[in-house]
Amino acid sequence: MPHVRIESLSDAQVEHFLQVYSPHGVTLWRHLQGTPQLDLYRTPIYLKMLVNQADAAGHIPEGGQPCSPASCGRRCNGNGGRTIHASAG
Q: Do residues 67 and 76 lie in contact, with contact meaning Cβ atoms separated by under 8 Å?
């Protein structure tokens, strides 16, 4: 049976992903950089869920756990509920 191994993204890769997939990427990166939550978002699937939730809600989701497919449609847990302003970044 085939196996898939997902490697963690580097800081530079996370920053680049956020800038490519979110108009608020620079602000998201500033809020995640150097925090324990950054380790939760080192895979593209969790980063994309974070971007979707942050862009829809206008702020970084609250909590300390990454969102899951089941919870992301309702409430995604992330990093402190900080507001993202469209003009930032």
A: yes
Is residue 78 within 8 Å of residue 67, measured between CB atoms?
yes
CB 40 within 8 A of CB 74: no
Q: What dihedral do alpha carbons 48, 19, 85, 65 form, nearest 10°?
A: 30
pTM above 0.85, yes or no: no
In tens, the pLDDT along 60-77 reads 776 544 454 444 444 443
Question: CA torsion, points 74, 12, 83, 79, in degrees to nearest 10?
Answer: 50
CA-to-CA distance for 4 and 55, rounded, in angstroms?
Answer: 29
18, 47 Cβ separation under 8 angstroms: yes
